[in-house]
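Narrative progress, year one. The postdoctoral researcher (J.K.) led the effort to move from monomer predictions toward full complexes, under supervision of the PI. The following entry was the first complex the group processed end to end, covering 307 residues in total.
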Amino acid sequence: MKSCLMVLVLLLAAPLSLAKEIAITFDDSPRKAAGYFSGPERAQKLIAELKQHKVPQVAFFSNSSKLDEEGVKRLQAYSRAGHVIANHSHDHADFNRTGLEQYVEAFLLADEKLGQFENFKKLYRFPYLREGNDKAKRDGMRAALKKHGYSNAYITLNNYDWHIESLFQAAIDKKLAPDFERMGQFYVQVLMESIEYYDQMAQTHLGRSPRHVLLLHEMDISALFIGDLVDELKRKGWRIITPERAYQDEIAQYQTERVLPFNPGRIGEIARDKGQKKGLWHSTLDENYLEQRFISEVLQADMKTLL
Ligand SMILES: [Zn+2]
């Protein structure tokens, strides 16, 4: 009897311990309303979907230049719902086009302004994932992060969800009435393809599936379909974890020596250092490719371009 119980315990524990782990993060909050939802509606829907699908905590990487009255309220709502508010710079400057001094200033200004939120954490997400296009800038910003008690909030799972949002808003704008069921399926499918691709790349180079960090943006399609994505992740054996847990993975300590003006994410950096030169950006990270698929899979329309 005792051994039967033991087997049962092991059987129950096994799927959990084998589950692949993923944290969810949203950049560019509070991102401006594009037409479908207002800012407050988007926040409300996003919070409700995360709660309903039992995602206890995500992170919102925020730009302090967007903190008007409504923006402050939106971030307050995320923070009070238990989500992390973190630094994505003041003005979303491109580090490839900005000097170190000015860039550090914008990082510190955001630190000051975002510090007002209860759940603020000292995590920095580089806009466009660009960490410096020469060694002096890259090392200067690494030193600034360290000096101010910050960690680099790298991502492992890259995608172009922001372009899917543009396609969705354009379809609404042009009164093309996108079918929401097909829209949700398209969103989930494209994201799952990139997630599985980068996880496979990680397993190739690390010999294991690390705790992943998914890059998304604070947008209407995220609020509409995050629940569908979470369901699909769980169905495929993934477990949703907090950003804090994700950043405890060993790869958080990884620092490439290579200067990368365009950064594919942490898995891409590791793959590049291990000699992989091609496929660091998944094929779904292509605006034209996504547009063609959106036209055929969501709109099922006979048209060459949408945008
Ligand atoms: Zn951004």
